[in-house]
Amino acid sequence: MQLVRSHAILGFAIASMFLSGCASLTGQQPSAISQIVLAEPERAEFRYEIELARLDQILTEDLSTEQRAELYYRRGALYDAVGLSTLARMDFTRALEYNPRLADAYNFLGIQYTQLQEFDYAYEAFDSAIELEPKHNYAYLNRGIAEYYDSRFELSKEDLEYHLEREPSDPYRVIWLYLTSVDINNEQAKKALSENVRELDKSEWGYQIVQLFLGNLDVDEFRKRMTQQLGEDEQLTERLCEAYFYLGKYMQLNNKPLDAMNYFKLALSTNVYEFVEHRYASVELDRVRQSLINR
To answer: Which domains does the chain have, with CATH numbers?
Structure first.
């Protein structure tokens, strides 16, 4: 699921051919890794590099306060898109120094503080975004996710329910509401998930993810479907980023932490930095590791 979408480069076919070829040469059955779909990690688009260079030049010129704020925000968004989160955070902060009414800059800062698990700063940023723009498209989702990772499940549920009400056909809103609701009451969460699925388009890829959590798809069938029927604007690497993250969450819910860790690592390997699934895969890894230590 995207906060800001980006494009990806496909590369799974070569890896699959290589692995199956090796197996046939040795006379052995395909190894477990040959059952995993691999994609070439996403690379920053050339136009991003050109625009970053252009913005660097423009920022040296004589600009109004509003122009400088907008340019710092734009450069921060580009840094964020290519995974340079520290530089992005610095630019969002600069943008707000010049114009403290940029709701989107607060939203981005909240996301980054959530990734750092600095939740007080994240809440402050999201609250500012919502105060400035009460109908912000993503601030409620992102605050709900921050509350989820901060184990404030009731508050998370309230924000994610509100976010879902605004677009009940969005499968990712359904999924995140389910994930936070499970920690409150597993039975009620499953019931709500069954009800919410009725609003979804069965032809959409996200519908398959919901079916996985409902138990209507097993893992093998889900993995088969995750490479099928890509939309015109959809890239395999983006699909895999989402699929592996939610497989990790599925394994986590089924008390398979080591499998969950591997799927989160696969999600991270796609380099789809702008997707919420990539953003929080590292947080998930930290949580799984900590749970294993505390056992």
So the answer is: 1-40+201-295 (1.25.40.10), 46-150 (1.25.40.10)
